[in-house]
Amino acid sequence: MNKLHGPALGIDLGGSKIEALLLDAQGAELWRERVATPAGDYRATLASIASLVERARVAAGMAVTLGIGSPGSADALGRVKNANSTCLNGQPLQADLQELLGQPVALANDADCLALSEATDGAGSAAAVVFAVILGTGVGAGIAVHGRVLQGPNGLSGEWGHNPLPWPSDAERPGPLCYCGARSCIETWLSGPALTADHARHSSGALLDAQAIAQAATAGDAACRASLERHAARLARALATVINLLDPDVIVLAGGLSKLPGLVERLPALWSPWVFGAGVDAPVRTHLALARHGDASGVRGAAWLAREPAQRVR
After folding, report:
1. Contacts with 253 (C-beta within 8 Å, 6 or more apart), sequence order
2. What's the distance, Cα to Cα, between the start and end of the chain in Å?
3. Which tens digit of pLDDT belongs to each residue from 231-240?
4. N or C end of the chain: smaller count of CB under 10 Å?
């Protein structure tokens, strides 16, 4: 792992929380703090980030470099697009933060930060191609190749959550409406709210969150077990398309739903029938793993953004 050269601050800007992590010159944690994200308020979000940065500077006792992972991506003019935290869309987030903070800010999609973190010193550190997935309030992914994050000319590399669910059954058509305006996006089937909605559709409207569904399934509730089965089967189909297109060495799962009971153990068997292999009966060699750094992986990747020029988003 390349070493940092001074205090490096990473910030993970999520829909419900903003997390800040300060790393020392060896990449060890110096300071961490979380605050709630001001819902739907762009200016208040900027102020919350600025407050965290100031406290990190105090904790470091000196200036810090800064990388931020946020939803969505930036267009050619630096305006945020495709963010499920919709108050960010159309806003020049990077430019506004640099003006407010008086320092350079490295900015990338939160899933790109996850991919960078896991490709640098995580579950994909020895792999050539890493596909890193966030399964949480939203669904997204990032791609790292030889330790560098791919972004693409449109900033869309890894926008897997807004492709349609592959190989849908008749019961899955036309699919739920997504905030992006399309129907049956992978996110509308695999996110936490999507699991809640799917369970409600199959169990007389019972609104249980993912954790409650998982707990009830473990206790033997048949309806909850069936909901987890449907979720796992859909995730397997969605990941099979990634293998067919990208053929990554490692797929890394992160986010709250990545820890659903038995999910990681079962997925390779579930995706195998959908992975293209006509005429040959051979195992799929893509490795599946949970994020080594867990919930901290994205914010660690944000810190890496600002301090590792060889690994910055291109």
Report:
1. 133, 135, 263, 264, 288, 289, 290, 291
2. 20
3. 999 999 999 9
4. C
